[in-house]
Amino acid sequence: MFNLPLFSREDSQSKPVFAPLLCWDIASINMSQRLEVHQDMTELDELTVLNQWQPDSDYKSYLMENYALIITDVSKEIVWASRAFVAMTGYEKCEIIGKKPTFLQGKRTHKPTRELINDRLSKFEPLKARILNYRKNGETYWCGLSIAPLRNQDNIVTHFIAIEKEVN
């Protein structure tokens, strides 16, 4: 019997807890997903330190719940995306870095919602919205999103974080 490291959902510090391995088939799927979340958490931690953000929420907990996260700079260009975002949209990270999230929108996307998002972001205000987006394959999906400004230690907004989930 092998002992595998597991990461507690309650512990956002992601300290491993060891548990006995009973079935490789089940463990390999779970481990792969947990490893991806752990990698996203590590990248998010590195960005937080690099940019000296003073987050007002534990964004890593959203990663554990399989929410899609993206970070944009103040010009709204994507600088980072979680693996759940890649899975939700069908785009690889290399295809989206440097683009504005508006590339996911199309002709059926509600214009007043787009205007609301732009207005709030221009004022560095947080917002919640539901918007029709398009996957890479052209399929539409409703996206519930919450966007918040990220401030550094001098209280200057340097980036935005969007927490997204496909909704009905």
Shape: globular
Q: How are the strands of the biggest sheet laid out side by side?
A: 4-3-7-6-5
CATH superfamily: PAS domain
Biggest sheet record: 5 strands, antiparallel
User: pLDDT below 50 for ≥5 consecutive residues: which ranges?
Assistant: none
Tell how many strands the DSSP assignment holds: 7
Order of helices and strands: EEHHEEHHHEEE
Please indicate the percent range of residues in DSSP E strands (runs of 2 or more): 25-35%
Overall average residue pLDDT:
88
Proper CATH architecture:
2-Layer Sandwich
How many domains make up the 3D coordinates? 1
**What structural class is derived from the secondary structure elements?**
alpha+beta
| CATH-defined fold name | Beta-Lactamase
Helix tally equals 5
Distance between the termini: 43 Å
> What would you report as the Rg, rounded to the nearest angstrom?
17 Å
| Helix content range | 25-40%
| CATH class label | Alpha Beta
Characterise the protein shown here.
The chain is α+β, with helices and mostly antiparallel strands and 168 residues long. It has one domain: PAS domain (Beta-Lactamase). The chain is 33% helix and 30% strand. It contains five helices and seven strands; from the N terminus they run ββααββαααβββ. It has helices spanning 24-51, 60-64, 83-89, 93-96, 111-122; strands at 3-7, 16-20, 68-73, 78-81, 127-134, 140-151, 157-167. Strands 4-3-7-6-5 form a five-stranded antiparallel sheet. Strands 1-2 form a two-stranded antiparallel sheet. Strand 1 (3-7) and strand 2 form a beta hairpin. The mean pLDDT is 88.
